[in-house]
Design a protein that fits this description.
- 41% of the residues are buried.
- The chain is 27% helix and 23% strand.
- The chain has a seven-stranded parallel sheet with strand order 9-13-8-3-6-7-14, sandwiched between helices.
- A hairpin with a 6-residue loop joins strand 11 and strand 12.
- The protein is an alpha/beta fold and 427 residues long.
- It has two domains: 264 residues, Rossmann fold, CATH 3.40.50; 133 residues, Rossmann fold, CATH 3.40.50.
- Helix 4 packs across helix 6 and helix 7 runs parallel beside helix 11.
- GO terms for molecular function: electron transfer activity; flavin adenine dinucleotide binding.
- It comes from uncultured crenarchaeote.
- One of its GO terms (biological process) is fatty acid beta-oxidation using acyl-CoA dehydrogenase.
- This is Putative fix B protein.
- Belongs to the ETF alpha-subunit/FixB family.
Length: 427
Amino acid sequence: MTSSLSAIPDAKLDERPNQNAHVNDNPEKERGDNNRHLYVVIEQEEGTILPVSFEMLGEARRLMDDFNHKYKPEEKVVAIILGHNIKHLCQELIHHGADAVIYADHPELRHPRNLLYTKVVCQIATDKESAARIWPSNPDFNRPRYMFFSADDTGRHLSSTVLAELQSGLASDINKLVINDLEIRHEHKTKGKPIVYEKTLEMYRPDFSGFLWTTILCLDNINPENRRKFHPQACSIIPGVFPQMEGDTDRKGTIIEFSPTIAQEDLRIKIINRRVIKSKVDFSNKKIIVSFGRGIKESPEQNIKLIENLAKEIEAEIGISLPISKKPYPISESLSSTYMIPDRVIGTSGRKVNPQVYFAIGISGAVQHIAGMKESEFVISINPDSEAPIIDESDVLIKGKIEQVLPLLINELKKYKERLQIPQEIE
């Protein structure tokens, strides 16, 4: 969106503002800063809070604890949860880091519908009455200062429409967050003057390679010729990258029921029937997972067959990295339709797994993939590059090419299994 600033050539950014620079123009004083708190949009399914929501709350708690220590305003972590018969979930959210929970309970909110959810989340995000109850001593409120969504299918869609409705910027698929005072000089944002933007959320996301990061900022236009405010500063967060906060049943907080305004036109999209489609691939019942990535490229058909044979020998399920699901290499239709499918993707765009043993074969270790397998108990990597990032997540590295290592490994496994066989008694 137009409010985001990321790697623009004529922008200069310094985390340590020059005290002699021209900063008369303190943006917060100039624009009347009455944006408050960090709002986290919670996801729940049939009365169960999804793990990514607890992860977002944990990171929100860490950020706002640091924020309040640095700036002394005691702003809050506010959870927003929508659904039906969900009041009992509010205390659980407080135990996991929220200072306040705003919940909207309505039969029409039982299942996510983006049009309706967008409207209700925007109503809550701009509701001054709820904000006054959250912080009675400082009721001056315009909008949330920051806002978090999950970077799953539901959260990506909802975050984009909510921020479009609120006319602010959005950074998607974020895996690192920092709040800082930044000195910015930009042709359009500041009319070329160095301006200190206080309390700016630095949002980092991996690029398409998975190994480089881009910093995204959501900044007000201070330029008098193009003056405009952009709040909340918002992002969607990759599931699995932040740790959950351990639940504390002694934590206290404020619980607010919000009565949404729902018009008939908001209900023009209806859910007639709903069923959960289970994946064709069941990772949960396998103790061992063998995953492969673009390292198969030299001999894709041969290497996939080797991986298939290895999986059979050790009774493992087969996973893949995201690029493989795009079918980048020509192989037979039978192998392609069996293994190069989205259901086998492990990572932020697929599944999160935690087997006892995880083989990473020809996988370089992009952050998106690591997020999906980092909870594996024991990781074995097969890779010719001993500097590949996956090595940092591995317990054992077998250095070599797939077509060289796997035949030896499969052969040794067969010999080992033969030695374990108990001879039959001869009558």
